[in-house]
Design goal:
The protein contains eight helices and ten strands. By secondary structure, the chain is an alpha/beta fold. It has one domain: Rossmann fold, CATH 3.40.50.1360. It has a seven-stranded parallel beta sheet with strand order 1-10-9-6-2-3-5, with helices on both faces. Helix 1 packs across helix 2.
Length: about 230
């Protein structure tokens, strides 16, 4: 059964998430000498990243990468790299290394192949931060997408794949870490807000939803942090 850690306000949720992430990264560095952090995009984590950036951690031993990225340059307002650079890679966290999922001037498949080297430096992750969409997607692994099966394959040899646009989502081509890459982590944190997403994850989760793969695996512990 899925267990929610519930917070009275979103501000309290953001505080707790930042604290959990920094503790996880600090523990991973103490154990391994270095650690990766797979950071998610979207509007919800930005306040978490603002808090994280000012917290003390062995940032010079941390490599930040992204769970997924839109196939746009960092200057684009929808870029997850841009979001992470504006909100996380500043203040104390400016010492962290960054492994991008976008490279100018390359095709989508070439970018996915090139990104694997940087992701390899971040693996295994100390912490993987994920959101979940109302359709049950995580990272850029969407229901009905032709790349979903490849992205969810637990025996995949790929850590990064190119995801084509689809109906109804995603609207843009994307680059995504695979399920098998994301679960190479000491901790997975699911950051969830609102009643609809909570309902999606409560009770027996529909096994056809991509996020069921995260909840049903036993490689990495999962903590679900939630506020209305």
């Amino acid at each position: 059964m899925v267990k929610f850690e519930t917070f009275a306000t979103r501000e309290a949720l953001y505080d707790a998430a930042a604290s959990v992430i920094v503790a996880g990264l600090t523990a991973a560095v103490a154990k391994q000498g270095e650690a990766g952090f797979a950071a998610t995009g979207g509007s919800t984590p930005a306040p978490v990243y603002d808090r994280l950036s000012g917290l003390t951690a062995p940032w010079d031993k941390v490599t930040v990468t992204l769970t997924d990225e839109r196939f746009v340059p960092p200057s684009d307002p929808s870029s997850n790299e841009g979001l992470v650079r504006r909100h996380l890679l500043k203040d104390k966290a400016a010492k962290a290394a960054f492994a991008p999922l976008y490279f100018e001037g390359l095709g989508q498949d070439e970018v996915a192949a090139k990104a694997e080297a940087g992701v390899a430096k971040a693996l295994p992750f100390g912490v993987t931060l994920l959101g979940v969409g109302p359709d049950g997607h995580f990272a850029s692994l969407f229901p009905g997408n032709p790349k979903l099966a490849e992205g969810l394959d637990p025996k995949s040899g790929r850590t990064v794949i190119a995801v084509p646009p689809g109906q109804p989502a995603p609207d843009l081509p994307r680059i995504s870490l695979t399920f098998q890459a994301l679960i190479q982590s000491s901790l997975i944190v699911l950051l969830v807000t609102g009643g609809a997403k909570k309902a999606l994850l409560e009770g027996p989760v529909d096994p056809s939803l991509p996020v069921a793969a995260i909840l049903n695996q036993d490689r990495a512990p999962v903590r679900i942090l939630w506020a209305e």
